[in-house]
Amino acid sequence: MLQLRWLWQALIIAFPAAPVTLAQLNLPQGYWADKNAILYISVILLVLGVSSSIISEIAASLQAPAVRRFNDELYKVLLATLISVTLKTESDMFKVGVHAFRISKGPFRRRLINIGSARLGSEPKMVDPRWTRGKGVVGKAWHEGNCVGVRWDRVYKEAQKLGREAWENKAPADRFGLNWQELWLTGGYRIIVAAPIIDAATGTISGCVAIDFPGDAAKLLTPEIQLILRDVTTKLQEIPRPPLVWTGAPTR
């Protein structure tokens, strides 16, 4: 998200700067002689673009402490959840991961944006996966509006037995919306549980939480795990909204 913001700011400045630069160089020769209106508009847009960039940087600097507070509060909640899962499931805490997502704004191509993760170990891990409604375990929790638990290691092993063609011929819901390449990236996960974050004021889903951990549990959504999911989704709702300049959250 941060890279996109910088790209957008660069385009805002570059677009009006182009005709101004070409006019100064008289390229193409004689073309800009009667194009004063275009040049005036370009100069105005250039000034506005530069001003907007400066104001944006000032706002980011002023709100930096608020951004740090938001990230710290978020990480405290996720880390406390990681510890609870470790104790309740007797898992290796270095193989437990807790991930918080919010639903992107806008009516089109909505997806789950990772706002923070807590993982003490390095594996399992996926780099910037794109979860949409119905895609992956967390996307299924969003789609169904309910807690979901999956023995993902069994899903993965069964898919390997079926092979690529048979996997991709399955209905999207039966393969969690994943193609073969995306499935291959999930090979290190064992148990994944997820739950929607319900906005108490509106009753709508504002995001999701996903937890992955090792184990051989026969029953995934035990009362203890459901309680942990409910607690973390409630605590995430209690954290104030991030500042306007917030562009994403670090994974720790």
Structure commentary:
The protein is of the alpha+beta class and 252 residues long. It is 49% helix and 15% strand. The protein has a six-stranded antiparallel beta sheet with strand order 3-2-1-6-5-4, with helices on both faces. The chain is elongated and about 80 Å long. It starts with a helix and ends in a 14-residue tail after the last helix.
Structural class: alpha+beta
What would the principal axes of the Cα set say about the shape? elongated
Quantity of strands, as a count: 6
Sequence of secondary-structure elements: HHHEEEHEHHHEEH
Low-confidence spans: pLDDT under 50, at least 5 residues? none
Distance between the termini: 18 Å
Enumerate how many helices there are, as a single number: 8
Q: Specify Rg, calculated over alpha carbons.
A: 24 Å
Helical percentage: 40-55%
Strand content: 15-25%
Overall residue-averaged pLDDT value: 81
Biggest beta sheet attributes:
6 strands, antiparallel
Spatial order of strands in the largest sheet:
3-2-1-6-5-4
List the helices and strands and how they pair.
Layout: H1 2-25, H2 36-62, H3 64-89, E1 97-103, E2 111-119, E3 131-132, H4 136-144, E4 148-151, H5 152-162, H6 164-169, H7 180-184, E5 191-198, E6 205-213, H8 223-238
Antiparallel strand pairs: 1-2, 1-6, 2-3, 4-5, 5-6
